[in-house]
Amino acid sequence: MATTYFSKRNLHFLLHEVFKAEELTKYDYFSAHDRETFNLVIDSATYIADTLMHPYLKEVDRNQPELKNGQVTVHPKIREYLKAMGEAGLIGAGFSFEHGGQQLPEMISSCVGFIIMAANNGMMYTGLTSGAAHLITSFGSPELNEAYVPNLLAGTWQGTMALTEPQAGSSLSDVTTSATPLPDGSYKIQGQKVFISAGDHDAAENIIHLMLARIDGAPKGTKGISLFVVPKYRPDGQGNFVDNDVTSTGVYHKMGQKGVPAMHLTMGSNDNTIGYLVGQPHQGLPYMFQMMNEARIGVGMTAAAISTAAYYAALEYAKERPQSRRLNQKNLLDSPQTPIINHPDVRRMLLFQKAVTEGSLSLLLEAARLYDISEVAEGEEKENAFLLLDLLMPVAKSYPSEMGVQSVSQSVQTFGGYGFTEDFPVEQLYRDIRITPIYEGTTGIQAQDLLGRKITMKGGKAPQLLFAEISKTIAEASTHDDLKPYADQLTTELKRIQEVLASLLPFAQQGEIERYLSDATLFLELFGIVVVAWQWLKQAVVAKQTLLTQNPQGDEQSFYEGKIHTMKFFFHYEVPKTLGLAVRLKDPEVLTIVTEKELAL
Amino acid sequence: MATTYFSKRNLHFLLHEVFKAEELTKYDYFSAHDRETFNLVIDSATYIADTLMHPYLKEVDRNQPELKNGQVTVHPKIREYLKAMGEAGLIGAGFSFEHGGQQLPEMISSCVGFIIMAANNGMMYTGLTSGAAHLITSFGSPELNEAYVPNLLAGTWQGTMALTEPQAGSSLSDVTTSATPLPDGSYKIQGQKVFISAGDHDAAENIIHLMLARIDGAPKGTKGISLFVVPKYRPDGQGNFVDNDVTSTGVYHKMGQKGVPAMHLTMGSNDNTIGYLVGQPHQGLPYMFQMMNEARIGVGMTAAAISTAAYYAALEYAKERPQSRRLNQKNLLDSPQTPIINHPDVRRMLLFQKAVTEGSLSLLLEAARLYDISEVAEGEEKENAFLLLDLLMPVAKSYPSEMGVQSVSQSVQTFGGYGFTEDFPVEQLYRDIRITPIYEGTTGIQAQDLLGRKITMKGGKAPQLLFAEISKTIAEASTHDDLKPYADQLTTELKRIQEVLASLLPFAQQGEIERYLSDATLFLELFGIVVVAWQWLKQAVVAKQTLLTQNPQGDEQSFYEGKIHTMKFFFHYEVPKTLGLAVRLKDPEVLTIVTEKELAL
């Protein structure tokens, strides 16, 4: 078992040196905090991760939840972890004081998510609870808040997001779960939901589903979907809780993240499931979408966390495992074997992992920072932050997920045959991370969101704002001779994106949306590489300035030089991939749009 | 469970129409065969695959071998399968009549491997037995042949390749298992082997290890390694078999291919393990290497087979699963949802899978054909075939493995959330295929073999021969107006490879081997794309000619048009990746060679 699963040094570098998290405390809402309280929260999460999570990484995977006699049993440590997270205030870290939270920035609460998911992503329970509770605090009545939020934030109750139905996976307009008004203002719920993470288990005393359903007579499509609180046990109005007729119909057995049950739930088997409307009727989807950015940061963080844990396992192994001699010393059979980190190919794989994982984390903290500003700032600052966040969101969800899958694959490869065995954690992490390009909107859907909505909204203002931000970093980098070539390269990459858009946008203008979006996934990939290149240049600028002004020594010097080196790696190995992507994206040949004449696939 | 796991139509197309397998029967050695006997063998393998293998795909995965009281128990169907394969003559398909085989070309026996691995790769037993028996028939004494080969080919005994040791994974020069001569000409064996696939199990009556060991006093390094037959039960000279002190120390639990036990074996715990020298002392490694091409074709085939099975599962699902509306019809909420195959992004993923899997199979059959010619032809024809095969081998092993991993990942993605569950076979196939870039020399090692040995051997004659072969295909394609642009593109790609080599070879000439090979894996990737582009153009030429001359209708027309369409897909989506790879490979910046000054990774 790898002993290191994330780098607190790197987290501090990004939070404090690159993104200057403390600047957020200038806003009233965050003014109770400072750098020290931020670090205390991180330390508190690390303690829980070290003691209650990481030691059970394998165990939680090996003992997957089973449904027996209608009851789902999960690993006993889950209850301890939920309780500890609640007691440390970490489930409510991002909630306002008014709602019993710590009123911390998303930047900090997403770091908590990063740490605990790096420790043991099979214990992915509290992020779901936070998300569900946040829907109630944002849109629910005072009664709903009072009835549900305190127990959720305490970790005694579990929250879920109950969107997906068997016939409506990615297509929420086809949701059919029904809600029939009752005289007391509540609703009778009937329907089925699938893939509900933590949708039932015995580590919480109650399960609170934030569920999409359609009120009888509601308009078709997404405009007729409402949001409900549907508890497993509902209050009977006399201080007791009664069974709410939410049946666990099945638990999916999965390739990874086995610690979290993905439930198939049936509401209303006995015509006795009650739901409580959150906010206004037919506003379910807009409500969900307002939470989507937070949820997608969460998935991106989970992916970045898993790939980080795999990277440190691979790095540790590569430093310790002797195998063969260096390529220029092949004939020295008397010399001892060299640690595999000294083979260029292994070093390339490790640098790839470092570039992907630390680049992803940087992008996610950038997104979290924008989220915070969009929440607490005012006027143009708020609006611009929101636009930028909206644009970056599909990338911040997909890049860590898609590239994380590849990164963990390289972690497995670093171990050779051992990587395929259960003796080391990487095979599990390889299985675990594969869900992240699917959760919360697949990569294909993120790509359509980016190219189909975010690029063009408000007359293309969001990419303008982004390019202005990137240009600031380019200007800073250009003042250092050794960073200037990379700044210039990034300028070229921005032009490349503009050229690609110039060749695609006419299709959108002509209403040929299918054609416009046919290679959207490749555009997302291209855009992701450039955005992460920007994050690396940003890190390199800070590292360079620190080396120049503070002259750090030893490990610290090596840390900063490693940042610059990895930035170079990213530009020399990852950025050239944009060439082929741009060629394809500008290519007029259409090969994926279905025609009358069907081909044999 | 997907009902289709490979396409016999495609196999026949490649075997008979593209590679004209029957032409091999002009050689004396294969003259007993014709197209009909080839097809009978394929049908026979299909029957076993359909009845004894595919139905147990999940079961074999769910019930992984366990070591209890020194005995490894495997799924009971394995014994039936071994027996059926032996009785059908499929374990000995490629062996000479003299050795009790069917004297079939590798082209055909590798198709057998493809079919059975597509059906259930967790039953990967007989390929190992063939490989072990082949070492005995090629280099062993008549006594060894008589004592071991018949039972191996009958499927009653299991063969293994016992190379890897705990301290010597990829570095065979560091093998330490010892062999001490005994007065009767046999050897006492002492040591440990790890990752020995099928290294012990109860579905065979005896396990025959083809084991590398070092005779006392042998030279250091690879020049002192000898090959031995080390049985689990050895003949006592009086017609009985006695325990040979080969202890099953452990069974690795693995992420995938769970049906095959990967054993940790200890020889000589009681100082009573006897081995029998195969061929001459100190020739173990050359012997193994002569079998290596066959073994690597086998791994490539396994990868192509797994990704093919995943592709057909995804294709079937995409045709049946309705979800959302086409992008130009988003507002038609009254219309039914469309099958996801009609979404361009899903179609792109499926075409990618088809392009990778059928391109890989084509390349592997090309390699098998060259193998056959190199075995039975004479003079220059033989020599050229051998050189070409040697050059293509690292690609034919790595491309199907590396790209197969990506292809199966896209199969998972096609299923969305369901792909992550055990309800469909793709999650298992995703786990299974991950070992193939590690087996029989990791991708990094294949890359060093390609760039470090194969490109430069005999003054670069092998790439010259390859380029001449590719040029023939280019010339054929150029006669068709609609294929000519792709022929021209392939010419450009050949130039690109030459440019890359021109920039790299000076390092080799200056003895800077580490520098020369530092990005060898990227060169292998580049080379693989171009070689598979050639295979696709080859297929497209045949499809085009058939469409022109035979005017096929219905499904047949659609089959051939699908081939041309997929060729185009490969050139428009995969080939542009060479641009970025070439930029990196010609880039003078070195970032992966270890220097005095250590960086923080």
TrEMBL record, chains A, B:
<dbReference type="InterPro" id="IPR037069">
    <property type="entry name" value="AcylCoA_DH/ox_N_sf"/>
</dbReference>
<keyword id="KW-0285">Flavoprotein</keyword>
<dbReference type="InterPro" id="IPR025878">
    <property type="entry name" value="Acyl-CoA_dh-like_C_dom"/>
</dbReference>
<dbReference type="InterPro" id="IPR009075">
    <property type="entry name" value="AcylCo_DH/oxidase_C"/>
</dbReference>
<dbReference type="InterPro" id="IPR013786">
    <property type="entry name" value="AcylCoA_DH/ox_N"/>
</dbReference>
<dbReference type="Pfam" id="PF02770">
    <property type="entry name" value="Acyl-CoA_dh_M"/>
</dbReference>
<feature type="domain" description="Acetyl-CoA dehydrogenase-like C-terminal">
    <location>
        <begin position="466"/>
        <end position="587"/>
    </location>
</feature>
<feature type="domain" description="Acyl-CoA oxidase/dehydrogenase middle">
    <location>
        <begin position="161"/>
        <end position="266"/>
    </location>
</feature>
<dbReference type="GO" id="GO:0050660">
    <property type="term" value="F:flavin adenine dinucleotide binding"/>
</dbReference>
<dbReference type="Pfam" id="PF02771">
    <property type="entry name" value="Acyl-CoA_dh_N"/>
</dbReference>
<dbReference type="Pfam" id="PF00441">
    <property type="entry name" value="Acyl-CoA_dh_1"/>
</dbReference>
<dbReference type="Pfam" id="PF12806">
    <property type="entry name" value="Acyl-CoA_dh_C"/>
</dbReference>
<protein>
    <submittedName>
        <fullName>Acyl-CoA dehydrogenase</fullName>
    </submittedName>
</protein>
<dbReference type="InterPro" id="IPR046373">
    <property type="entry name" value="Acyl-CoA_Oxase/DH_mid-dom_sf"/>
</dbReference>
<feature type="domain" description="Acyl-CoA dehydrogenase/oxidase C-terminal">
    <location>
        <begin position="283"/>
        <end position="449"/>
    </location>
</feature>
<keyword id="KW-0274">FAD</keyword>
<dbReference type="InterPro" id="IPR006091">
    <property type="entry name" value="Acyl-CoA_Oxase/DH_mid-dom"/>
</dbReference>
<dbReference type="InterPro" id="IPR036250">
    <property type="entry name" value="AcylCo_DH-like_C"/>
</dbReference>
<feature type="domain" description="Acyl-CoA dehydrogenase/oxidase N-terminal">
    <location>
        <begin position="43"/>
        <end position="155"/>
    </location>
</feature>
<dbReference type="InterPro" id="IPR009100">
    <property type="entry name" value="AcylCoA_DH/oxidase_NM_dom_sf"/>
</dbReference>
<comment type="similarity">
    <text>Belongs to the acyl-CoA dehydrogenase family.</text>
</comment>
<dbReference type="InterPro" id="IPR052166">
    <property type="entry name" value="Diverse_Acyl-CoA_DH"/>
</dbReference>
<dbReference type="GO" id="GO:0016627">
    <property type="term" value="F:oxidoreductase activity, acting on the CH-CH group of donors"/>
</dbReference>
<keyword id="KW-0560">Oxidoreductase</keyword>
